[in-house]
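chain below, 60 aa
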Amino acid sequence: MIVGLLFILLGFIFMAGGGSDNPDVFNKEIYNWQRIRLAPTLVIIGLGIEIYAILANPKK
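prediction:
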């Protein structure tokens, strides 16, 4: 379960930031591939790992 939590945490860290200090200036960094593709993919993979960890039978 710790691995899944690390994936989710890493995904949210990649999503953070990218804002602008001045609201009149648009920052195009908010639309880079890291925030649009990589971060949500890491979060979904982390959720899948968590679901597997919860449903897996430890007796096997």
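Residues 33-55 form the longest helix (23 residues). The mean pLDDT is 90.
thats it, cya
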